[in-house]
Amino acid sequence: IIVWFMLLKRPVYEGVLVSFIVLLTITHSWGNLGSYINTGLKTSLLYSMVAFVAMSILLTKTKIIDSSIAVILALLGRVTGGAGYVLSGEQYYNADDLYWLSHIIYAEAGNQSLRGQLAVGAVIMNRVAHEGYPDSVYGVVYDRRFGVQFTPTANGTIRQIPSPESVIAAKLVLDGCRISEEALYFLDPDIATSLWVVRNCRALFTIEDHDFYA
Q1: What is the pLDDT of residue 25?
Q2: CA atoms within 13 A of residue 47's CA, in its CB half-sphere
Q3: Which residues touch 155 (CB under 8 Å, ≥6 apart)?
Q4: Between these two residues, 29 and 195, which has the higher pLDDT value?
C-alpha cells in the first residue's frame, strides 16, 4: 500500500485492492475468495472501508481540499511573527495589486484548482519583477506593447467579481508564494490563437488546462 501510494502516486483505495490481490496470489488462496467476501460482508470493517473509498474518491475528484484550505486561510488571515498579531487585508495588502491580481487570476483560472490559480498569479508577479515588463500588477495585466497579453482585458471578463478562492490565491502570491519563479507565459493549448510562445519559449510544466513557459 505504501509503495502504491507514496512511490506510484496512486489513490490509497487502489493500493488496498492491489495488495489484496497480491496477497491472494502469494498465499494461493484464490479458492477461499468466496468465504473471505462472505465473512467480510458480516463485519462492520467492510462498511468502514467502503466509506473510506467513497471519501477518497470524493476528495480526489473534487476541489474540496483546495476550497477547505482557502476557507481556513481566509478565516485565519495573515499571522505575523513577534507579537503574533493579525493584520486585515486592507492593512497589509496593496489594494490596487490585490484587486487586479485577484481579477486576472479569476478571469484566467477561476475554474482551475488553487494550485492552477497560484501558477497564473506567479506569472503576473514574475513579470512585475522582470526588467522587461511593467513594474506593477496593473501595468503587467494591461501591457499592450506587443499586443494583448491577457485575453480577459480584451473581452471584458477581467471585470468579473473574483471568487473568494481567487482572492486567497492572490493574497498568497502577494505574500511570496511562487509555484514557479521562472514562468513568464501560460496558455491553454486547446483555445490559444497564437503559437508564438510555444515556438519561442521553453516549456516548464502543465497544470490542468494551462501550459507554462519561460
Answers
A1: 83
A2: 4
A3: none
A4: 195
CA 210 to CA 70: how far, in whole Å? 21
pLDDT of residue 150 exceeding 70, the answer is: yes
Measured CA to CA, the distance from residue 118 to residue 60 in angstroms comes to 19
- Choice between 198 and 84, residue whose per-residue pLDDT is larger: 198
SS3 88: coil
**Three cell numbers at 66?**
483546495
Going by C-beta distance under 8 Å and a sequence separation of 6 or more, which residues neighbour residue 138? 96, 97, 100
What cell does 22 get? 497480491
Residue with cell 502570491: 173
CA angle 199, 186, 73 (to 5 degrees): 165
pTM of the prediction?
0.60
Find all residues with CB under 8 Å of 112, minimum gap 6, and list them.
Answer: 120, 207, 208, 209, 210
Q: Residue 57: what pLDDT?
A: 66
Place of cell 498568497: 172
**186/123 Cα distance (integer angstroms):** 8
Q: Which helix (H) or strand (E) holds 211?
A: strand 210-213
Is 99:151 a contact under the CB 8 Å cutoff? no
DSSP secondary structure string, 144-209? -BTB-SSTHHHHSGGGSPPPHHHHHHHHHHHTT--S-SS--EEE-TTT-S--HHHHHS-EEEEETT
Q: Which residue has the higher pLDDT, 157 or 42?
A: 157
User: Which of 162, 135, 139, 166 shows the shortest CA–CA distance to 150?
Assistant: 139
